[in-house]
Amino acid sequence: MRIARFCFGVGLVGLLLAAGAANAQKKMGGDPAEPAQGTPRTKGPARLTKAIARQSVDTKSMLALIDQMVACGTRLTLSSWTDPKRGAGCGRDKIAARLEEISKLTGGKLQVVVDKFEATAERTSGKPVPLENVYAILPGTDETLKKTVFLVSGHFDSRPSDVMDPNADAPGADDDASGVAVSVECARLLSKLAASGKSGYRATLLFAAVSGEEQGLLGSTHLVEWLKEKGYTVGGMLDDDIVGDDPAPGGPHRVRLFSGNGEIEDADSPSRELARAIEEIDGRDAIRMVFRVDRYGRGGDHYPFYKAGLPAVRFTEPLEDYNHQHQTPRTENDVEYGDFAKYLNAAFLGNVARDNAEALRQLAMAPAAPTEVRLSGAVTSDAKLSWKAEDDSERAGFEILWRETTEARWQVFDFVPSAGETVLKGVSTDNHFFAVRAVGKNGARSIATASQPQVRPAPGTNKK
Ligand SMILES: [Zn+2]
Predict the structure, then answer these.
(1) How many CB atoms lie within 10 A of CB 118?
(2) Which of the two residues, 448 and 21, has the higher pLDDT score?
């Protein structure tokens, strides 16, 4: 019985005492247990099963693309965009050619776009420089949801020790040809599934390879604007940067997944919800969530999306080797420096591609996440949640999520067929965090939308 199980709200304890139920509480040991872990109370459709088998990932082609990019000598954003043999333009050509090849194999499902623009930053010496991003777009099939885009991105620019030197070699195999290879392999896996009729994506998928990361996240910052201009809403952004190596013994290890807190009290930013959704889809044995926007003192292409309040996360290998990043190739005191393909770990790289592809697949099959999720019921013994959602004939309903304030992950509290309001009987607003997510008839879940409290300010705290 729910009321007996969750009676740790002070108000509710009072009620129980008043009702002569003190004995019931005594039996439960005074402070009853936290909500049962691992037993979802869902009455909705079962979760989608995974469709991307690890053996379907073509690591050989991923490594071949990385080798082609390394052979461009350098891909620094400030290097040549017109020389087909050396420079950023050479890298762009290899990626666009591979995406065109994949598109042909899947009956032209992918639209390949080369997006040219200019940007100015400290690391362009304050002068506008030309940049280019490469995108492959797999349009969604749902009239409403096709303007929502889920994207995966790696950056194809690389850098030597001196970020302003266009002439030094900068192989950039791990940073970040590896992330580009993941993005391109996701394009292959997911467009192939779409062509076979085995998976229909309601939302649009976009596979990006951007430039200007090392010059100050310029390509990604531009991509946020480009998507807005094209009228897309960002459903989720997966940044893959330095995802090709796993040198510690005992691997392959889990890939790290960084997500920022956001600026609300309970650390439930859209980015954090995206991280939780990815972990649920891929499993705890595949994903190591890190509740931090990025590694200390480092940045990445998810950041401009995150700062815009959009759901964006970063995948990075478990333990980085700094001799193999941002280093002009050389040997000093018998130590070899340089970001070469020989250090990559194909088994790990393939796992990352599978994890990204499966997450993108399930998210693009899900209904839209609910909006305007509001929590009320402060100073009562029941929590009330209300939320909104567009009509959707493919949606089965909504899962009401909650967790202890000390817990990292959501539990399913209840399943409700339609949008509106629900009352969580005997659940104090004070002791939990709450969220709502949409569930498709196909079993795909949207990312959760955390509740915003509608509470009166506590006495004495309403000072400006
Ligand atoms: Zn990088």
Answers:
(1) 12
(2) 448
Q: CA 28, CA 320: separation in Å to the nearest integer? A: 48
Outline where 71-177 has alpha helix (H): 88-105
Residue 310 alpha carbon to ligand 1 centre in Å = 20
Cα(383)–Cα(429) distance, integer angstroms: 5
Calculate the alpha carbon distances from 417 to 46, 427, 446 in Å.
14, 20, 15
What tokens appear for 301 in the block?
């292409």
36-48, pLDDT tens digit by residue? 544 455 578 999 9
- CA–centroid distance, 97 to ligand 1, in Å, is 22
What is residue 453's predicted lDDT score, i.e. its pLDDT? 78
CA of 214 to the centre of ligand 1 (A): 7
Q: How far is the CA of 155 from the centre of ligand 1 (A)?
A: 7
Nearest to 313 by CA among 282, 356, 346, 347: 356
Q: How far apart are CA 212 and CA 76, in angstroms?
A: 8
Measured CA to CA, the distance from residue 434 to residue 451 in angstroms comes to: 6
For 120, the token pair is 């100015």
**209 Cα distance to chain centroid:** 16
186 CA distance to ligand 1 middle (Å):
19
Cross-strand partners of 116: 132
Q: What is the reported pLDDT for 4?
A: 37
Cα of 176 vs centre of ligand 1, distance in Å, is: 5
Beta bridge partners of 208: 135, 153
Reported as type and span, the H/E element at residue 133 is: strand 129-138
**Strand, coil or helix: what is 91?**
helix
Q: If you measure from the C-alpha of residue 171 to the centroid of ligand 1, how many angstroms do you get, rounded to a whole number?
A: 12
User: What distance in angstroms lies between residue 179's CA and the mean position of ligand 1's atoms?
Assistant: 8
Give phi and psi for 331, each to the nearest 5: -120, 130
The beta-strand segments (E) located in 203-358 are: 204-210, 233-240, 255-258, 287-290, 312-316, 330-332, 335-337
- Using one digit for the tens of pLDDT, what is the confidence trace for 278-304? 999 999 999 999 999 999 989 999 999
In angstroms, the CA 131 to CA 135 distance is 14
Q: What stretches of 322-430 adopt beta strand conformation (E)?
A: 330-332, 335-337, 371-376, 383-388, 395-404, 411-416, 420-424
Per-residue pLDDT tens over the stretch 322-334: 999 999 999 999 9
Share of the chain above pLDDT 90, in %: 77
